[in-house]
Design brief:
The complex is a heterodimer. Chain A is 28% helix and 38% strand. By secondary structure, chain A is of the alpha+beta class. In chain A, strands 5, 6, 7, 8 and 9 form a five-stranded antiparallel beta sheet that branches. In chain A, strands 2-3-1-4 form a four-stranded antiparallel beta sheet, with helices on one face. Chain B folds into three domains: 2-178, 3-Layer(aba) Sandwich (Rossmann fold), CATH 3.40.50; 192-355, TPP-binding domain (Rossmann fold), CATH 3.40.50.1220; 371-542, 3-Layer(aba) Sandwich (Rossmann fold), CATH 3.40.50. A six-stranded parallel beta sheet of chain B has the order 3-2-4-5-7-6, sandwiched between helices. Chain B is globular. In chain B, 57% of the residues are buried. Classes of the chains: A alpha+beta, B alpha/beta. The interface between A and B is medium-sized, with 21 and 19 residues.
Chain lengths: 178, 572
Amino acid sequence: MPPEPFLGTTEHTPVQHHILSVLVENKAGVLSRVAGLFSRRGFNIYSLAVAPTDDNERFSRITIVVDAESAPLSQVVGQLNKLLNVVEIRDLATHQAVERELLLATVKANESERSELLRLVADAGAAIIDFSHDAVTISLSGTPEALDTFEHLVAEEYRNIEVQRTGRVALPRLDHSA
Amino acid sequence: MKITGAQALIKSLEAQGTEIIFGYPGGAILPVYDPILDSSIRHVLVRHEQGAGHMAEGYAQATGRPGVAMVTSGPGATNIVTPIANAYMDSTPLVVITGQVATGSIGTDAFQECDITGITLGITKHNWLIKDANDIPTVIAEAFYVATTGRPGPVLVDLPKDISQSEMEWYEPPLPEALDLPGYHPQVVGDRELIEQAAALMAVAERPVLYVGGGVLKARASEALKELVELTGAPVVTTLMARGAFPDTHPQCLGMPGMHGNYTAVTAMQKSDLLVSLGARFDDRITGKLDGFAPSAKIIHVDIDPAELGKVRRPDIGIVGDCRVVIEELLAASRTQGHADLKPWWETLRAWQGEYPIHYEESQDGGALKPQSIIEALAENSPDDTIVVSGVGQHQMWASLHWTFDYPSTWINSGGAGTMGFSIPAAIGAKAGRPNRTVWAIDGDGCFQMTAQELVTARAEQIPIKVAILNNSYLGMVRQWQEMFYEERYSEVYLSTDLPNYVMWAEAMGCVGIRVDSPEEILPAIEKANSINDRPVVIDFRIDASEKVFPMVPAGATNDEIVVHPSQQKGA
């Protein structure tokens, strides 16, 4: 499957942005150090996702989507690098990243609406992960753009939805040339 | 050997070579104060925790060694926040130990609890909350290593009371190379290719200026700098943080640039075709309005902090590295280069120096004292290696402009943060670290009133500093701005001519107090102060309240709009 292009902007990140993949020591307070640095230096964050890596849980990876217009990227990277617990920063700029985001949406849908909703879910490659007599909860992982599209379609058709998105995670795109 | 966390802390500080702790006890830090009684470390009991922090800063700036301060939790910790912020701005190595409530009470709003690691996140290089007494030797080793390497700065170690009371098995603190700091790798050596490019750029520059900042002092690079200056023949400016890094009496020294810099230093930067920034950071007080700063200059920027390169002004060549190492590398690379003829540039510079020297009008007969002449009299009657420590305001600028600094680490002030009240405690710290040097605190009356109580500390601890208050009964710098930019509408800047009585106040604190009202009293007062070495001396110099600091680049203006002394202005 060819990698999908990275478009740079989405609904959730409307202006020019960059993805920083930041490897940090898994120490108490590291997230507030990173977040505090962004607020102190006036850098804007669009989304932030954090989870331990598999390396004995000594390190975590923070994926930060930053507004590249609020400050030069070199400043953001330079200042982040000064944090003692920051081990490595990868700037995953345009077209160099594969990204995924997870969306959960609970949609109120009665009997008559449900078949149409299930078709939408199937078409999008989403899954039903919970349901009751008048609502379903849908899970979809994909590119942020795909999630935008799906969120739009559902919102157009159904009056009562509750959406939660994780913010994106990303890794560098592999070299396909060899 | 099982010992308590408190004993481990003191042993760890000893292992790092700590000579003095400036501190103040209290509930949460109490366990640590017991083993101090058995330690070789001298403890200086301050009168306010802010004093402890500034003393540690003064000590660090005078000696080049990290300053150590220790305070209790809550208000003790918050009182030392200002010195930590100050040290962060001026890259001063500081290790601050704070007591903390017991780990089980953290987060419960316990008595004297505050989140000091949270509060100091943005003003420390790093901070640690210790949760296991076994970590103490390692964390203290890390704290000293981080504070003193790379771009130096303050660090804070928060020690909960139950941790200092619990037992641990003592082990020797790890050496720097054994520390496990995967995210901390200061780059010391400059990139060879960039060094070559920089040397080539310096060789063809026709109007170069070496722009020397505090990083040169931190890197102990003065000697290497002097060689580079003499090899290249280029002029040098020394910023407020770098006074003394290159001798003022050297013919290639133009003095201080910036908002209150002298005309030639400011204008040389402005007209230069190559600025070689060595351990400086293009502070707004140097650049003036950034858009109009040194418009035709190419920039070589050398700094140990990669984030400084391009933070303010994009360099043509940015070199990350320790200033001494990079200057030595530049020196080696420059030896093989020719040099442009700098004679026309020097003719221009000498003409500016002739036309616009630093100037003030001497006192008229029976007139008020001029602060500039007091500084000059102090300098003339003090040893060459006297350490001068200033507060913040007009007196700071006069001291920097009118004292001749020929040696590194003889000028200590609060540059980046501009912390009023810095002078007295910082001078005490400097004198504690350099007891054989004469230490003059040059202070303003506003600053003096903020931290004067530390003179009690100085007397009690036998740290005989000398204090010159340039007393104009005003917050002089604010007054100057109100005079020049607010139509002389003086708002909340008058401090009174007779409150307090400084001589009585000094005497009450165990110091000698002297008041000087007229020019002929200046010299006898200084001579008396010089003859007293068993206690601090305070001289209350009553100066002309209308005296202003010139030159001045108005806030928001470009450096081309520098305002010289009225008598030098065209058409004056």
